[in-house]
Specification:
Elements (H helix, E strand, L loop, with lengths): L7 H10 L2 H38 L4 E4 L14 E2 L2 H6 L4 E12 L4 E6 L1 H7 L7 E2 L7 E5 H7 L6 E4 L2 E9 L7 E4 H8 L4 E2 L1 E6 L3 H11 L4 E4 H7 L9 H29 L1 H9 L4 H37 L9 H27 L3 H6 L2
Parallel strand pairs: 4-9, 6-8
Antiparallel strand pairs: 1-11, 1-12, 2-10, 3-4, 3-11, 5-8, 6-9, 7-8
Helix pairs in contact: 1-11, 2-8, 2-9, 2-11, 2-12, 9-12, 11-12
């Protein structure tokens, strides 16, 4: 009598239900893998994409940076003399130049701009104040709407930025480079960088490519990028330094899922030795036994993946409402990758236990207690 004459799928479902703890652990392991992959990738992609969009929102066409800087200029200590702005202003095709000193709060990764308010507003067509107004003193700070919402800030409140006390003088819509803006001279004093800036935003008179070439000729040793080129670089696939971290997180998730499924399936096979002996005595082939165990694993992995996707959506919803400044952007192809890796890790973890079960000798298996 072959196993095919039994109610095959009833047997599969019965084996899944009869051991709810191990089934649940396997599902949770796969769910953790999916959640870990999607959240890590989503957070990195959201931060990088949001950063690029805020740079675009400044309204500049070009950026002048120090020669040893990176596209993550908030983490760079490189600087340029503020006086270089006068030379840039004289380059043909340049309409507006705005110096910026970029600072970052390490704990929250919040970007703070030290700005010359007049030139920055000329660059970005002015701030639209939702509340309050421009700087009135060196200890004033303008915050964007997301920062204000996250920390429940109102005009006139005192806040601490990089261990310095500031008063909120205005709240503006988000999307213009930073979350917080302080006077340039104040930022220079905070950084101990008198007369220094991190970069210059440049707005051209219209012909961006011609202005770019003129700037390259005038400033051959500095790094000059068009904002359009900068935006093409601001994605995870164009940032090789991020790839090892992403790969490590994906590997960690796969390893967790593989080990838990392997241990759970191996233990189940040992407990079902007598049952496997009966099936082999009734005519079940090695391939049928392997298929039985692997199909159970695929079903558990499928439920685990659904649990992981649901957990990811729930976590995203909670973070979106509790931390509006944290952007999570999950590309569709990474959802497909997470699903494929979830099945792959679970099946890989079940292969050896399934192979071991298929090799049991019927007589020894039947004699097992």
């Amino acid at each position: 009598m072959a196993i095919g004459e039994f109610s095959y799928w009833r047997l599969v479902w019965s084996n899944i239900r009869v051991r709810p703890v191990r089934t649940g652990l396997s599902m949770i392991a796969v769910a953790i893998q999916v959640l870990l992959i999607l959240l890590i990738v989503g957070m990195i992609n959201g931060v990088v994409s949001g950063w690029g969009q805020r740079v675009e929102g400044v309204g500049a066409d070009l950026m002048v940076q120090p020669p040893n800087s990176t596209i993550f200029f908030a983490f760079s200590t490189a600087s340029l003399p503020e006086s270089l702005g006068q030379k840039i202003q004289q380059v043909p095709g340049v309409k507006t130049v705005s110096p910026v000193l970029v600072m970052v709060e390490r704990r929250s990764f919040g970007v703070v701009y030290g700005i010359d308010l007049k030139s920055f507003e000329d660059m970005s067509n002015g701030f639209r104040f939702l509340a309050g107004g421009p700087f009135r003193g060196p200890s004033d700070v303008i915050v964007d709407s997301i920062q204000a919402q996250t920390h429940h800030l109102q005009v006139g409140e005192r806040i601490t930025i990089l261990n310095h006390a500031f008063t909120v003088c205005g709240i503006v819509p988000s999307g213009k480079g930073a979350r917080e803006y302080v006077p340039l001279a104040t930022a220079q004093a905070m950084r101990g960088a008198a007369g220094k800036v991190s970069m210059f935003y440049v707005h051209s008179t219209g012909d961006t490519e011609s202005t770019l070439r003129s700037l390259v000729q005038a400033l051959p040793h500095d790094r000059i990028l068009s904002v359009k080129e900068y935006l093409t670089l601001m994605n995870t696939s164009s940032l090789p330094d991020l790839q090892p971290f992403i790969q490590s997180m994906v590997g960690l998730g796969v390893a967790i899922s593989f080990l838990v499924v392997f241990l759970a399936t191996y233990t189940i096979v040992l407990e079902r030795t007598h049952e496997i002996g009966i099936l082999k005595a009734l005519g079940a082939s090695r391939s049928q036994l392997m298929g039985l165990i692997l199909e159970e694993t695929v079903i558990m992995a499928g439920f685990g993946i659904l649990l992981g996707l649901g957990s990811t959506w729930l976590t995203w919803s909670v973070l979106h409402h509790s931390l509006p400044s944290l952007s999570i952007l999950i590309p569709a192809h990474w959802v497909a990758n997470a699903i494929a890796l979830g099945f792959a890790a679970a099946i890989a973890g079940a292969c050896y236990p399934a192979f071991r079960a298929a090799r049991f000798d019927p007589a020894d298996a039947l004699a097992h207690e």
